[in-house]
User: Fold these one by one.
Assistant:
Number 1:
Amino acid sequence: MQLHPLPKRLLRCGTRTLDLSKPQVMGILNVTPDSFSDGGRFIRLDAALRQAEQMVADGASLIDIGGESTRPHAPVVAQQEEMDRVLPVVEALAQRLEVILSIDTSTPALFEAAAGLGAGLWNDVRALRREGALQTAARVGLPVVLMHMRGEPDSMNDCAHYADAVVIEVMRELAERRDAACAAGVLPEHIVLDAGFGFAKNSPQNLALLNDLWQLQALGHPLLLGISRKRVLGEVLGGAPVEQRLFAGLSAALLGVQQGHSIVRTHDVKPTVDALRLWSALPKQ
């Protein structure tokens, strides 16, 4: 592992700007009945609003709202159902909170509608592969997170063979998606990259990737870390359930930030914010 500073860069997310030279915490808000960690807890609008308000009070700079579970073997969600889950939450939060709203979706129509309501960032686990996604991203003109994944949630575990070091292949495939986005008209300064922990990667591969995250800096884009409560943490801890993976997740967050990742996506906002505040307070050479 090599230490790398965070980039001196601003990410303009609609009417709000994110300073990537210091760690930023993205709070996860799943408005789904079946997400692996907190499925069903925030599917009611009032519960979703309370959770978002708490995460902002705890220090989140972004709220990532998702209406489709992408856990392994998750069922496909119809477009209208996903929109019905997400859009009322986006509309309500945009009116209540001073925070960047990120939309965790691969559905172009949903993101375009959410952008019209005030969302500022598209977080796409499929890296704009769905029909019309590249064109929508270029037309809407907001930043997009391109995540590395092979296959689909019901098949990605069958795609976990890497002929080269996992970080090399992840970088190569992220660069391909980055190039496709730019060719479609997405501005390079609007692209954020995510290595995709747990997506088409087994635990040894996830750990190797965590150790080599610094290499993604060579791609020249801001980086997002999403490892909160993932299975690899539970396996390292001897089979710990999701509610017992906090401290391992905090360690992973620090490792990511030390290797140049500006955004940490997490279910556990306050502990992550506190840990990163301590890191930020250290004198830097």
Number 2:
Amino acid sequence: MRRVCVYAGSNAGTRPEYAEAAELLAAALVRRGLGIVYGGGNVGLMGVLADTALEAGGEVIGVIPEALLAREVGHRDVTELRVVSSMHERKAMMADLADGFIALPGGVGTLEELIEVVTWSQLGLHAKPCGLLDTEGFYRGLLDFLDHAVGEGFIREEHRAMLLVDDDPDRLLDRFEAWQPPEVHKWIDRDMT
């Protein structure tokens, strides 16, 4: 593993613990020699994540659509800022550059990005770990929903288990290092017969 894609809010949220979680995750990634791929912003948790990693000497690659750069929310001091034409291109490039994915607290965009890469993993389109840094129980509602969907027969237990969750960045990264890709194609073949 060389780089981790981190999805994070463009706002800082109402609790100081959210920014602290971004700082702790950035520091843990840099300590382990892992680069960060993120949405390229200089605001909210994205800005906190990037600034903390840069101050610690880490590699930070931002990927931002031209339209957002024009609104002056792009972080111009990152190791590398890649400007793309669309949100779709942004997400694809972030996924290509990363060897794993972690979501910090965020809004609809953060949730959409995370769910997309988990879905890609479930379908066998990539074999990279996906995780949530569940700061202050921020994702408890989502986790309850996923568990409910398992109980109602819409998500398989083994697919639900593909999303690694912890409230501590180092423990989550330890789980990333120990993670083994599931035998996804076995499930897909079984579903198609």
Number 3:
Amino acid sequence: MIKLRRHMLGFILLAVLILGFNNEAWAHKERSDGYFSFINPQGEVFFQTALMVSLGDEFIAHDNRQYCVSKLDGDNAHCEYLGPASPAEMVRATFSGSESSAVSSAAARSSVIGIYHTHSDESYVPTEGTASIFGQGGIIKVGSAFKNALLKAGLKAVHDTTPHDPHDAMSYTRSRRTAAQLLKQGSVALFDIHRDAVPRELYVASVKGQDVTKLTLVIGRENPQVKANLNFAKQLKDLNDQENPGLIKGIFLTRGIFNQDLFDRAILIEVGTHENSRPAAERGISLFASTLPAAIGKQGLPAKTQSTGATQRTGSWSAVVWILLLVTVGGVIYLYLATGSWVELQAKVKHFATREFQELRGRNRDSDDTN
């Protein structure tokens, strides 16, 4: 029985170490040697990204057609068409100066938007002369432009410029603390601002007479909050499709978590690519910011979310449940291998439970006698 207990304790400790220190559980890698091309059933390229791509990843294109990666062939991700993407649960109306828009703006004025940068080195070659500046990349100035545009739109914003370099597999582990601190400051939406690494023309757009970069919204599909985060991304895309047509390139659902398990309105945004100019990226993110009052105001945010960060705790507990589930399943498999058969496993578990119950009764009886 002591040996069985040791087996169980050893497995739990091993699982905690793996989940706690293996960053693959929390984020996904990026390529430094090129990019992937998404190909539709007609053989046409409709999306490209430097983020790693896996089977089962999905992309909602600018026209709301949804695709799923069904085959990987080198740099090519062949996709099947899933049909039109389901609409967001709360469809937004256009800005019309109506009473509902005024209510939305009033509700949004007390909301705080959190902004940070997991890859704080990312830069724009035409402006900075390099694609990477350790700890002080041009992407931080894009975040500042985002904050200023939010303030101009009547929202509160906190821009955390903490560097999380080097740009490696542990970046999201380091930025997790920053994201958590922003939530403690009352953020009702959280944006991790990045830029992509694909050819310039893929992100070039003209919106409202301005030369801007397009934006891609990225959701980690292994994140327990994926459903809520995806719905928020769809709401943001809906609003920008109405107000800033052509600005949103699409929504990419990829492997990883990107710290989005912390909150149900957390989005990673790719603002242009390294070959775009930073001013174009700043103009793009500023147009995006102009739609946030309607998005936040129409959320119908409960008071407890604004004052106590209850949603953050919900996200954390969801992650804990997933970890416990993995530990439980892994424990059963481990004990099966250790005992050699299901019959022996059941016998040992039954014996273990019976003994624990008897010991508990004995302790309770001793306690009663003492009292």
Number 4:
Amino acid sequence: ARYGGEEFAMILPQADAAAARQAAERINAAVRAMEIPHEDAVPYSNVTISVGHATVIPHAGSNPIELICEADRALYCAKHAGRDRIIGAE
């Protein structure tokens, strides 16, 4: 689902951190394979994506906003690390 201007979110039921990373790697590879031109992106000439992912085992009192914030922090770490990255929340 679109989550903000240039951001998307996915909910992966029953996925642990390894499964979330595998999904992110598949999506990243699919975007690269499309070879969408991006003249303004330096050093990349094609559109790339950065991914931040987080997982949680819900329990009584869990707050979904915390999960979203963790994934968002991981995304911005990926972007600041040079873009075209996948980073999971610790």
